[in-house]
Amino acid sequence: QVQLVESGGGLVQTGGSLRLSCAASGAIFTDYHMGWFRQAPGKEREFVAAISGRGGLTRYANSLKGRFTVSRENAKNTVYLQMNNLKPEDTAVYYCAAQAGAWINSIIIRKESYNDWGQGTQVTISS
Fold first, then answer.
1. Neighbouring residues of 59: CB distance < 8 A, sequence distance ≥ 6
2. CA nearest to 124, candidates 18, 45, 4, 35
3. How far is residue 15's CA from residue 72's CA, in Å, rounded to a whole number?
4. Residues 60-98: pLDDT tens digits?
C-alpha cells in the first residue's frame, strides 16, 4: 500500500500556473505508475494525466494536452503536475493515485484501476 499526500493547490487567476506535488511513502515508488485525476463539484472524477514507474511513458486527457505536464522525481518519491494557462473550468479537487502492474493505455486512464489515493488538493481558478 502506498501513502500519498498532495500539495500545491490554491487560488489563481485565469491564465496563471500551478504545480501540484504528490509525495509517496510506504512502498517502492518505481513499482507504481502514478495518475492525476480531478473532481469538480457535482461531476465525476476524471482522468488528467499519468506517468509510468520509470517516467518513460505519459498519457494525458486529450482536452488538457499542451497545458498540463506530468513528471516524477523518483529519488524524492514525488510526482508533479505542472498546470499552465489555467481556466475557470480547471477548478476542482485534484487527486494523485498509484497503480501497480503493466502499463496499458486503456487501463491507465480508468480510476477503478488505481488502488491508492491521496486526500486531494483544491485548485480554484478565478475569472
1. 49, 50, 105, 108, 109
2. 18
3. 24
4. 999 998 999 999 999 999 999 999 999 999 999 999 999
